[in-house]
Amino acid sequence: MTFFNDLRSAVAKRAAYARTVREIRSLPLDVALDLDIYREDAPRIARRAVYGR
User: Fold this and answer.
1) Which of 11, 21, 27, 41 could form a disulfide with 46 if both were Cys (CB 3.0 to 4.6 A apart)?
2) Domain tally, the chain
3) In 3D, which of 37, 50, 13, 31 has the Cα closest to residue 5?
């Protein structure tokens, strides 16, 4: 069962990563800049938020 639990966890993390990237990229430009977020950094920010790296 460990394999299936690991697989389920990996799929859930990948979905969270994709959702986070999509949400960051869809922020209005003025909001993103107010938060000091650049759209090009969305994958890096999402990776850190989901995977902790």
Assistant:
1) 21
2) 1
3) 13
Give the tens place of pLDDT for each residue, 2-53: 999 999 999 999 999 999 999 999 999 999 999 999 999 999 999 999 999 7
Q: Which tokens in the block code for residue 14?
A: 């990948």
Residue 18, domain extent:
2-51
The encoded tokens of residue 24 equal: 């960051």
Rounded Cα gap, residues 48 and 53, in angstroms: 5
This prediction's pTM: 0.87
Dist CA 30 CA 16 (whole Å): 24
